[in-house]
Amino acid sequence: MSEHTVKAFDAELNGLVRKIEDMGRLADEQIANSIGALTSHDAALARRIIAADADIDRLQLEIEEMAVLTIARRQPMARDLRELVGALRVANALERIGDYAKNIAKRVIASGADAGPAADVRELQQMADLVTTALRNVIDAYVRRDAAKAMEVWRNDETIDAANNALFRRILADMMAAPRSIPVCTHLMFCAKNMERIGDHATNIAETVYYIAHGNLPEAERPKHDTTRLADSN
Fold this sequence. Notes:
Elements: H1 3-40, H2 43-74, H3 78-110, H4 118-144, H5 147-177, H6 182-214
């Protein structure tokens, strides 16, 4: 490619990275707000989270359009093509993360006036802290093209799984001890599962960063220790 074309291509890639950074910040805010709505049992905040999901969806569409146009215009090869495919994968993962945050907000509304056992809510907050740290680190790894940092997130997913397993057992015990708590505890159980799935998508982004850098996915088997077997909640 000519120098002019290379500069134009670099500008388009940088534009994609900036939009993905924006999308990552929105997803991070949605997670924090969803847990804030849960811990304070704030239905009004939960409704704002649900409405704000449209902003993440809009950014995903913009990223898809930019990436497809760049592929058609530049016909990139090798690492350049992986950059564009990677942008599409990351945007898709962030869109799903936004959906899971929205699902938690829906659970806040559905649970009515009952906030649930305080100890369970505290553990869910701690799990959310693990998840948001993973998301921030993996977005930073994507922006910096830091495959080593991305693999740290990839390996640490089992910590999120362990937190989910422990919370699952605690909530089951609460249900058995107080059957009247079953409805709200069920909502908390699915909130925890949504958090665990956010962690999975952070791991997907980590694999994409590795793919961009090396042209293949990690050879080792993904560390996965979720034993709850709960279906995804929409």
